[in-house]
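Crash report, auto-generated. Payload:
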Amino acid sequence: MNWLTDYVKPKLSSLVTRKEPPSDLWTKCGCGERTLYVSDLKENLNICSYCDYHMNMDVNSRLKNLFGDNAFEFLEVPFENNDPLKFKDLKKYSDRMKDAQKKTDQKDAAILAQGEIGNTKVVVFILDFNFMGGSMGQFVGEAFKIGCQNAIDLNCPFISVASSGGARMQEGIVSLMQLPKTVAAVNLLDQHKIPYISVLTHPTTGGVSASFAMLGDIIIAEKGSMIGFAGKRVIEETIKEQLPEDFQTAEYLLEHGMIDMVVHRKELNQSLSKVLSFVKK
Amino acid sequence: MFYLDFEEKLEKFDIEIQSLIKLSKESDIDVDGKINSIEKKKQIELNRIYSNLSPWQIVKLARHPNRPKTKNFINSIFTQFTPLYGDRLYSEDNAIISGFAFLDKLPVIILGTEKGNDMNTRIKHNFGMAKPEGYRKSQRIMKLASKLNLPLICFIDTSGAYPGKDAEERGQAEAIAQSMKVALNCETPCISVVIGEGGSGGAIALATSDIVIMLSNSIYSVISPEGCSSILWKSSDFAETASNSLKITAKDCLELKIIDQIIEEPVGGAHRHHEKVSSDLKKALVKSIEDLKLLTKDELIRKRNNRYLNYIV
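Recovered output after restart:
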């Protein structure tokens, strides 16, 4: 070893190697092909202006997307995540939670708000994919239930906006219980004849699709979003064949009779207003 | 008999006993004393293994090929099983079996995932992995039980819902979600028993009940330990660690109030004591139905919905 290998070489290679762009300025499009300027993307509702790919939205952008210029207020979810299994994988679950809370500035993966879409008062429940993949644990289940109860109390339609990888594994079997819990909450809506609109966004899979998300009276999916029960990779491994490119897309589900409409994100507010005008209480 | 990796010594003892029996048949050597002493050693070894099973060992027992399956329990607990087929929408799905039967003199309706006992039956029942038509058949059967006011008894033994192209095309997610909803609105006592593997959505679709029972060496989980390992540990080598973290044993589930009762399997497991486990399970089913029959239809549905709606750890 000498100064040539120890000092000069790293200096040279640092000059030659391509640096990754700072992540807060640039981001990759979900299609995997283009690099996009973050502020442009934000202005365009997180839709790629080249390929129209709908990327995940943070909660605040989603609220704006849903309510437009109308005012809304947050509804409280009086529940603190208590790490029911004291779970640890490569990292402690409690640490993962803290990281996600810092990253998103949210308590957990779901929020509740009430306001008017078009001219109709609604309660909305939104899953945040940026918070541990929008996964459903006790907090999310409880938030969904409280959202339904609020809609019943206010006698107004209930809207859920899903984006989730499914149940939160770090809560083990407790997370599986959130499936019947949210289904029982949908049951409450039925009993009180409260209209329930389920909006599916990219991605909606596993325990979330297999519970409240597929039980909407009306189901709307965002253009191009991936919706299904099992993951594409698991299916390919099981059946040992390649799946069609549009497999599990919103358009594919529409064709197979699983949802009512596929909408562009820019038209979501309009489509919701239209549906709400029929089901208004 | 299939021996699990931690049952190596038991296999040796059984082979010794078999050869001694053979010897005694071929000659007039008295082998009873020798057999007795091996039987004693075997019992000690059985006690040693089964008194302190780890979650990972329980996973292996829950998947044991010789473990009694849904059909075995139907035959040992009920009489006059009369199968009912089809979802009336698309197809029959052999992964879920259903039908009328008598529990002593009481008519009931049975629903359950069936894994099969040998290669042919495993293929026939798709290894207990149901497709949407299976869950839609389940909904039909639940509604029938509700209409006829017959207690519904569900057996669960599945690694999960089938992950396939056709299953997704026909709405696997919706079928599972809807099954829970129909079960929650069933106007008759609903009892579910996890007899082997209670795998995630495929299990909860049939386990949204008034009383949920588990056999002591069965498991109930949101994801298989192997799946959890590859997702959270980014490697398939941590399945055993994951099985400890996920709280999948009957004891864990009872502590977490996810289930109501455990049927203790005798030392050696259900695959060695099918009759005893069946008779204990039968008693539990009879008692559960008696208890639930005291409730009105409205009370049943309200309690069942609240059980899940208010579930918090």
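Post-recovery validation: The mean pLDDT of chain A is 91.
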